[in-house]
TrEMBL record:
GO cellular component annotations of the record: ribosome
A Pfam family it matches: Ribosomal_L28
Keywords: Ribonucleoprotein, Ribosomal protein
Domain of life: Bacteria
Coiled-coil segments: none
Protein family according to the UniProt entry: Belongs to the bacterial ribosomal protein bL28 family.
InterPro entries (UniProt xref): Bacterial_rp_bL28, Ribosomal_bL28, Ribosomal_bL28/bL31-like_sf, Ribosomal_bL28_bact-type, Ribosomal_bL28_sf
Gene it is expressed from: rpmB
Keyword Ribonucleoprotein: yes
Taxonomic source organism: Gilvirhabdus luticola
UniProt keyword Transmembrane helix, yes or no: no
Protein name per UniProt: Large ribosomal subunit protein bL28
Amino acid sequence: MSRVCEITGKKAMVGNNVSHALNRTKRKFNANLAKKRFYIPEEDKWITLKVSTSALKTINKLGISAVLKDAKSKGILK
């Protein structure tokens, strides 16, 4: 599975390592992802999502049901 947040769509970015002599080499900035299980009481089931830590904060604030509904309306989640 790719390194993409299933809620926000965040993925790896490309940038440079910059040395003291200002030599630049390509590098990748990966998203801070965690695999997490969530319980959905309306459907009485558990789901596993790969989410970024910023999405976890959003889920804690708004609730999993509201976040899933929003993601489905934006077309990010199936």
